[in-house]
Specification:
Blueprint lengths: L5 H31 L3 H10 L7 H11 L1 H24 L5 H29 L5 H30 L2 H18 L13 H17 L1 H21 L2 H8 L3 H30 L1 H20 L4 H29 L5 H30 L3 H12 L1 H4 L19
Length: 404
């Protein structure tokens, strides 16, 4: 394994530490919502709150481009630590109502938006262009291993003992990550300036992302995928508890199965791209992801459901590695944060909206509806990738832009 340098290793370690705690919280938060209410719309509201701040992601991207990824990631980790502690307090006092969980989830979403956007700025700043797939694969693979493969089942197990335990560990992980970020050298970034200049920088990033042919189409696709993923994921905890009857621990194990597939996807993404090319890889990954969700909605067997989630996780992770490396390769360094944030605003902002739609669909049509809608929709999303020239994903040909 090629060494990518000490600064990258520090960021890698900080993200790994916080991802372990995050994985436990990802399981515990919907379980806390299901404990407070079995209404699908209430559970979906908490799920949507975990992504809602991504709607304002370009603001976080502009801040990261102008102030540097180190400051953004450090501040975000401190803020997320405090937000997790507030949720801990509400659980200890038996006051974890749906409104309080929504507020806490929204605060964590704000911190996540700032942190993850800054991380996208860090990667191309710390590694060479030829190492982008490797660096993204390591980060996403570590996230999958610690956040999902270890964090999810451990979170389900600890939540079955006491719901507060995963949130305590989550807060501690953010504190540890903040300390690690202090070991990075300070960056030289644009000096602070007027609000009007900040707005110009903000608009510049959005215009570049939407005006670039390849990046613009990928951003549009990300929005559609995010909407459909939200529809599927928001009521998933109720599907597991009531249709599969797998219980709290089973919920964590099923999410870990998806993580196991994602880990496999992270390790094989670069080889798949080398064999199929970026464009074919993106199309195949979408089709596999969609088909697995349709099949998931038709099963009542937890073992088959776990296998299907693993397949889905592998396909989604391959998509994420390819699109992240493509953006980092094509976007000018000074615009990395804003363009990445615009992409993630489309993806995660739409996920929040999809969560509400998924809750309503489950309430009106039953818990089988969300995975069926999401799966069929995902298979249709390949139509957005087809118009992208294959060489636009890997070479300077993609620098062609349409004027906004």
């Amino acid at each position: 394994m090629r060494r990518l340098g000490r600064p990258f290793s520090v960021v890698w370690a900080a993200m790994g530490v916080s991802n372990l705690g995050d994985g436990m919280r990802i399981v515990a938060l919907p379980l806390a919502a299901a404990e407070a209410s079995r209404d699908p719309t209430d559970v979906a509201a908490v799920a949507a709150a975990t992504r809602i701040a991504w709607i304002a992601a370009p603001v976080a991207g502009t801040w990261a481009d102008r102030g540097g990824f180190r400051r953004s990631m450090l501040t975000a980790n401190v803020f997320r630590c405090l937000a997790a502690l507030v949720i801990c307090a509400s659980l200890v006092r038996d006051q974890a109502t749906i409104p309080i969980l929504v507020v806490g989830a929204t605060a964590l979403s704000v911190g996540e938006t700032v942190h993850d956007t800054a991380a996208q700025v860090a990667i191309p700043s710390l590694v060479r262009e030829e190492d982008l797939e490797s660096a993204n694969g390591r980060l996403l693979g570590t996230e999958t291993l610690l956040n999902q493969f270890l964090g999810l089942p451990l979170g389900g197990l600890l939540a079955s003992i006491a719901l507060v335990i995963p949130f305590v560990i989550d807060a501690a992980s953010f504190a540890a990550a903040a300390v690690l970020m202090c070991f990075l050298p300070r960056e030289s970034r644009q000096p602070a300036s007027s609000a009007s200049s900040f707005r110009r920088s903000l608009v510049e990033g959005i215009q570049w992302a939407t005006g670039h042919r390849a990046v613009g189409l990928l951003t549009l696709t990300a929005g559609a995928l995010g909407l459909l993923s939200g529809i599927f994921a928001a009521p998933l905890v109720l599907f597991v508890l009531e249709v599969l009857e797998a219980g709290r621990t089973g919920y964590g194990i099923l999410l870990a199965a998806a993580a196991l597939g994602a880990l496999a996807g992270a390790t094989m993404a670069s080889r798949v791209v080398a064999r199929l090319g970026s464009k074919r890889t993106l199309i195949v990954s979408i089709e596999i992801a969609g088909g697995s969700l349709v099949a998931f909605g038709l099963t009542t067997d937890p073992l088959i459901a776990g296998l299907l989630l693993a397949i889905n996780g592998a396909a989604v992770l391959v998509w994420n590695v390819v699109t992240a490396a493509t953006r980092q390769r094509l976007v000018p360094e000074e615009l990395q944060g804003r363009v990445a944030a615009t992409y993630r605003m489309a993806a995660w902002g739409a996920t929040a909206i999809g969560g509400i739609v998924g809750g309503l669909a489950a309430q009106q049509m039953g818990l089988i509806a969300p995975p069926m809608i999401a799966g069929i929709g995902l298979t249709a999303c390949a139509v957005f990738v087809v118009p992208i020239p294959a060489d636009a994903l890997v070479s300077g040909a993609s620098s062609e832009r349409t004027e906004p």
